[in-house]
Model the fold of this input.
Amino acid sequence: MSSSSEYGSLTWGLLLTVDHQHEDVQKEFLLQVTGDLHIGGLMLKLVEKIEVQQDWSDYAFWWEQKKCWLLKTHWTLDKCGVQADAKLFFTPQHKTLRLRLPNMKTVRLKVSFSAMVFRAVSDICKSLNIRRPEELSLLKQSGDTLKKKKKKDKNNKEPVTEDILNLCNSPVSSGLPANPGLYSKTMTPIYDPVSGSPASSTITWFSDSSLTEQNCNVLALSYPSCSPEMLAEMYQPRTLADKAKLSAGWLDSSRSLMEQGILEDDQLLLRFKYYTFFDLNPKYDAVRINQIYEQARWAILLEEIDCTEEEMLIFAAIQAYHVSKLSLSSEAQDSICESEVDEVEAALSNLEVTLEGGNTSNILEDITDIPKLADNLRLVRPRKLSLKAIKSYWFIFRDTSISYFKNEESAQGEPIEKLNLKGCEVVPDVNVAAKKFGIKLLIPVADGMNEVYLRCDNEDQYARWMAACVLASKGRTMADSSYQPEVQKILSFLQMKNMSSQATSDPESVDMKPECFVSPRYAKKYKSKQLTARILEAHQNISQMSLVEAKLRFIQAWQSLPEFGLSYYIVRFKGSKKDDVLGVSYNRLIRIDMATGDPITTWRFSNMKQWNVNWEIRQVAIEFDQNVSIAFTCLSADCKTIHEYIGGYIFLSTRSKDHNETLDEELFHKLTGGQE
Done:
């Protein structure tokens, strides 16, 4: 304590460190303060003491011992708990960060290290022209996923210099306010409507983005894949435990980067965390569609998600002989420069469509008539310790339920069984080459899931029944306007699977390595010429698509995979003596046997009554309908990660096109933040 005659009886010394670039100016200052001095007053005293003329508006105090920011400038030192032993750093809130995007490009930009990660990601997406930032988050790679890469790097004699896109001059990343009209739907479309290529006029679409036309092309266009050798060096998960490592590094959206140990110029991954891509519109989402496509492409190449050989060839055909060729073709590049759409005309066109309200006759028909399906299908019920029982019945699909009868004549009476599909899980069971068109239904019951298989006779019948099942699982009927588009989407996907027996192109004329477009496991299985021929066969059915159509088709095919959208965590359920894997998806939780990979039980979010976390023992407890409750601790990550996943998916389910695109940040943190 200082003498009362000089400073007063309650003054004490506080050591402050200033983070500035002036080498000839001291960085540590000892100020005499009192406990009732507010943070804003402390800033003023410090700036006057420094005597350096510069803009200090972005600076704030970081409390090193407590790992927290002192951002409430009206709070006093006593209220903050600051005493003489505190180490306070006066440092900029916006610092440089390196972000690895889904397309494996690295950008360097300034990000708020004091804002919650949810807000920081939103600002990053504004800089990168990506709508719906709530679907993305920041991921820190675990040491295990980097080991293989580092081991390979040691063998390289020449260091590899990474090409980094510098966006540090972005007004958004510098902390300036965003343009209020940021996501206006009256802006110029971001894709050329004819060629499907990104339009250069959209560079001014985000008025506060630092992206030049060239930089926008880097983010919105796809380029050839890396070499097979580089692909083999990258981390590929082999087991469910390996896949759990990929999901362990998500940052806490309710805390800042500094609070989570992220330092200036660190590298993080920007990834789509939530697999519910809302309002995906080719006119406004050039960068977003391309980055989703790239995340899907790398997930398939590195076998982060399982797919069959037939599906792998389809994915290879889309990316290798369509997306890559169109992205590099001179026609696509020319259209980028020439494609300029009048902004006012686009706005009037959108307004006209909105006012007309679409086809009113279809709307009236939907209101007055609920369609139904009636067909002979085969029912398959798996039986333990015996073969599957397969029998033909007369099925009627009405509203969101399936009823089946012994034959068509008995359909006027009581059904043998009525299956309510609302909230069920629908999985395709298709092998086009073998003429197998099956639908796997996992219907929730009190003790788990009731497994039922339906077998259709042909593609058309399968498409109609599959589309009806998908809609019914979401609580919609066939009267919904999305039914026919869903049928067409399924038919087009089946057409892609139905590859022709002869290739129309000469494999020798292809100048790309086919091994670049399939996972290393499939690349080893075939010789290069064989792989090229098989990919060309699949390519015949997609050769007429535009660039954006090819990417959207790739994304749709990715979404149709059974394991799509699953994030894995190693957990220990209450009362269990062994570890299990928990799969978290947009609409359900799945308990999976860690040894065999077989699903044990599925719980739907639609049946969930409440969930909570016991922060003392780090246990997540969830209650479902019909008095079903579960509890588990997470072993591969913090329980807050799973808690945020559940709350995040529920938050995303509240989105609606009728609302403006302003995010309810308070609701997100209420659902995901928790009280530790």
Q: What stands out?
A: The mean pLDDT is 80.
